[in-house]
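Session log. Operator J.P. requested a structure for one protein chain; no other inputs attached. Running the standard single-chain path with token output.
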Amino acid sequence: MSFRVEEKLLIDKLQIFEFKDFLFSRKARILYPKRIIKSLYFDNSSGDMCRDSIEGSTPRKKIRVRNYPNNKDNSLYLEIKISSIEGRFKTSQTIQEKEFNQFKKIGIFDKKYGVCRPQIYVSYDREYFQLDDVRIVVDQNINYLDFRGYKIEKEIDSIVEIKTEFNKNRDDLINDFPFQRIRFSKYCNGYNKLYKKYI
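Structure written below.
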């Protein structure tokens, strides 16, 4: 288990080029090629994972199945993101398509949240950068789709995530990036936009 420090920045769509110029002026390097990410998020019938995330409760978690549609193998990953008093960490395991289809039919059982069924798809374009000991990802063209396919919503702005090891000072991390810091969850934001809940 590896804890990490993670902060998010809201970047206006017109400022995203300015942000990338800022990265390259600091000698950031491209870590991986740009790729599309698609995740299916699961939650219980009351939306408790979304509520806990918005309220900042701990411990809390998010459950999703992620894939990379433009990758040749199109592998599927069951990921659980956990936020605890000690910090944040993520578990990930490869699953087969048959298992994924079962999850979509009967849900995923969690000890705290009970039976969690598929709620929304979130897809976006992601770029990866490295600046010293900080990893930066830039997410653009964010789309939210109801699992049943009834409705789709779009995110206008871009979201930047900055991540580093748990022993780095959080204030130093923020001071290194002079842009607006926010609490933001793609899942919760999509849930709000699609279902008009917890606004």
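Operator note: Residues 4-195 form a domain with the mRNA Triphosphatase Cet1; Chain A fold (CATH 3.20.100.30).
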